[in-house]
Specification:
The complex is a heterodimer of chains A (466) and B (93). In chain A, 38% of the residues lie in helices and 14% in strands. With 466 residues, chain A is α/β, with parallel strands linked by helices. In chain A, helix 2 runs antiparallel to helix 3, helix 5 runs parallel beside helix 6 and helix 7 packs antiparallel against helix 16. Chain B has a domain of 40 residues: Histone, subunit A. Chain B starts with a helix and ends in an 8-residue tail after the last strand. The chains are: A alpha/beta (466), B mainly alpha (93).
Chain lengths: 466, 93
């Protein structure tokens, strides 16, 4: 039978598998043939795994598991044992993972089928997926536009029906912004909710793995599988400290922060109609002040540069990936890193080295760490009065391919509404809310909860999207 | 506020072309000027750099099953010899 992929959700697929409408193998086959037809245009996948059908056969034997036979796409920075993982970089070309990420292991145990690994900005540095060493990903809703980034491949795979759902990673918006650009749901969990073990690190105090899906309910299923304490990640939070909140009722709106120069008029109009919709669903809206959020981008970039330059020191041509020989070990390091890393990665490594160097450390890194605490406190204060905060996900709809690729600072500004949550460690979800009038480009509402308030996001999100 | 590309490239162990040096100098100076706006924020008392601290303990026992064998790890290295990773000689007499 022909499976209607465009209307399929995890819930419907599980139903179809249980009733025997199609087998796990047939479901994976349907995705593989759609990938074969579409991926050359979209460049969502860097590799489609040759054992996908074999995985489906195995998964189909025990259908009672939460993701049994569900075909997923994985961002190219989440390790799957035995599979290549390059983080979109030439410096890891040829590298095959020697172990599973904890998120991978949990998905596998839940019966998921890994279709392939998806394109991304190199080492997750970017907001458009144009920084990939393997070419840009195109937006399935408009092929002249970017899919967003850095998890652009994972967002495009779900939006283009090249996977039923996927995983990405979010350091400053890398799940939510591409989800918004492609018109799918994307969740950045609470820092410490999902293990980072086996995620190729960008900013270790900011990174979280999270799901992309077509519905809030599907995102919730994926989240419930991958979250949980992991002894292999010392920042993963013990179960007894994960306290779910009660039924959300009060929604905060930081209008002063949202209504800023640079916000697209249609984004703002759509946000206001989303607020009306929330009101009609019975939630009460309240103005909240987040006075230090205007500094979030500057703080975010300083901290991320610093952490990235430290994390990426390990790529030196010695233990894995690319090596370019020179006449000494030092020149081997310099040549390997000079040729293996793309421009944005080298730019950020140097900026990180700068903000951490003696003489500048106090003015940049130390100051940023202090202002970060003020931003986290802004959220803490706001959440004394409200259960959830609402904002747009991105200040504008998906931009055109090449539009910002020569202006790094303009690219950074696309993250204005997403970075504050990574700094504060709070969870946030991006949910499709409308489209632009003329070009029909997706727009999204972002909902933010206190630490471990994911249930509030799912609760409101499920009511909002239907 | 000077951004010395050559010095930073050396500290970062990166080779750059002449063209890139010029390009990066301009771009990085603009980015540094932008993030420098945090200078304006008044902070009463700087926070500890590591943020909130809590003890993270585990039982002092080895993992039952290793995540990867030495052979598997060595297989990923670009150059090996007799079970070791090989690089150019570090010290000369």
């Amino acid at each position: 039978m022909k499976i209607d992929l465009s209307n399929l959700t995890i819930a419907k697929a599980r139903d179809g598998l249980k009733k025997g409408d199609f087998s796990a193998r047939e479901l994976t086959e349907a995705y593989l043939s759609h990938i074969a037809a579409e991926n050359a245009t979209l460049n969502a996948y860097l590799e489609v795994f040759d054992d996908a059908l074999a995985q489906a056969e195995t998964a189909g034997k025990a259908l009672d598991r939460p993701l049994a036979g569900i075909p997923l796409a994985m961002k190219d920075n989440i390790l799957i044992k035995g599979k290549h993982a390059t983080a979109g970089s030439k410096i890891l070309s040829g590298y095959a993972a020697t172990y599973d990420a904890t998120a991978t292991k949990r998905l596998r145990e839940a019966g998921a089928v890994f279709l392939g690994r998806t394109n991304m900005d190199e080492f997750a540095m970017g907001s458009s997926s144009e920084n990939s060493a393997y070419g840009a990903t195109k937006n399935p809703r408009d092929l002249s536009r970017v899919a967003g980034g850095s998890s652009g491949g994972s967002a495009a795979a779900v939006a283009g029906d090249l996977a039923l759902a996927s995983l990405g990673s979010d350091t400053g918006g890398s799940i939510r912004e591409p989800a918004s650009f492609c018109g799918v749901v994307g969740l950045k969990p609470t820092y410490g909710a999902v293990s980072r073990f086996g995620l190729i690190a960008l900013g270790s105090s900011l990174d979280q793995i999270g799901p992309f899906a077509k519905t809030v309910a599907d995102a919730e299923v994926l989240y419930s599988v991958i979250e949980g304490r992991d002894p292999l990640d010392s920042t993963s939070v013990p179960e007894e400290l994960r306290r779910a909140p009660g039924e959300p009722k009060r929604i905060g709106v930081p209008m002063e922060f949202v209504e800023r120069d640079g916000i697209d008029a249609e984004v703002f109009a759509d946000f206001k109609s989303s607020l009306e919709r929330l009101k009609s669903l019975g939630y009460s809206l309240h103005d909240v002040k987040l006075p230090n959020l205007g500094y979030a981008l500057a703080v975010y970039y300083i901290i991320m540069f610093a952490e990235a330059s430290t994390n990426l020191a390990r790529f030196d041509g010695v233990r894995y990936g690319l090596r370019k020989e020179g006449d000494s070990v030092l020149s081997m390091y310099e040549l390997t890193r000079g040729e293996g890393f793309g421009k944005e990665v080298r730019r950020r490594i140097m900026l990180g080295t700068y903000v951490l160097s003696s003489g500048y450390y106090d003015a940049y890194y130390r100051k940023a760490a202090s202002v970060r605490a003020l931003i986290a406190n802004d959220f803490k204060e706001a959440f004394k009065d409200v259960d959830v905060i609402a904002m747009p996900t991105a200040p504008a709809p998906a931009f055109r391919l090449g539009e910002k690729s020569n202006d790094p600072l303009a690219m950074y500004l696309a993250d204005i509404f997403t970075v504050p949550m990574n700094l504060a460690g709070v969870p946030a979800i991006s949910i499709p809310s409308g489209t632009t009038k003329e070009e029909n480009l997706p727009l999204s509402l972002q909902l933010i909860a206190p630490h471990f308030g994911e249930s509030s996001l799912f609760n409101i999100g499920k009511r909002f999207e239907t | 506020m000077e951004f010395d590309v050559e010095k930073l490239a050396k500290l970062s162990r990166l080779s750059l072309t002449e063209e890139e040096k010029e390009e990066f100098a301009g771009e990085c100076a603009a980015i540094i000027a932008y993030v420098g706006e945090i200078e304006k924020v008044a902070v009463d008392e700087p926070v500890p750099e590591a943020g909130e601290l809590r003890n993270v303990m585990r039982a002092d026992v080895p993992y039952k099953a290793p995540l990867a064998t030495p052979e598997e790890l060595l297989q990923e290295a670009p150059k090996t010899k007799d079970g070791f990773i090989e690089v150019k000689q570090l010290f000369t007499e």
